[in-house]
Amino acid sequence: MGEYRAYSLKNEGFIHCSTLEQIPKVVAAFYQNQPDLLVLAISPEQLQSPVKWEQPQHPNPENATLELEKETFPHIYGAINLESVVFVKPLQELLNS
């Protein structure tokens, strides 16, 4: 059916992910000025690549918020097979619901 490979998979070795509860904090920390973002909901049971829960590595440590540093985030170590995608929604639609 196909797969999704984020730019970070090549550069960092994994795809950054968040839980639904973490999305508002991640958007505030990293994506405030990026319009038209999409959210993919992924079924871990259907995902073929391994997932590791890890602390974030902020690209600019001096700007890191302590709140995010205390959490762990799902990192997908491989492509996201499209069969595992439950839905795709615009970020703003998800935040407004």
Automatic annotation (TrEMBL):
Domain of life according to the entry: Bacteria
SUPFAM superfamilies given in the database record: ADP-ribosylation (SSF56399)
Pfam families: DUF952
Annotated InterPro entries: DUF952
PANTHER family associated with the record: BLR1139 PROTEIN, DUF952 DOMAIN-CONTAINING PROTEIN
Name listed for the protein in its UniProt record: DUF952 domain-containing protein
Organism, scientific name: Microcystis aeruginosa PCC 7806SL
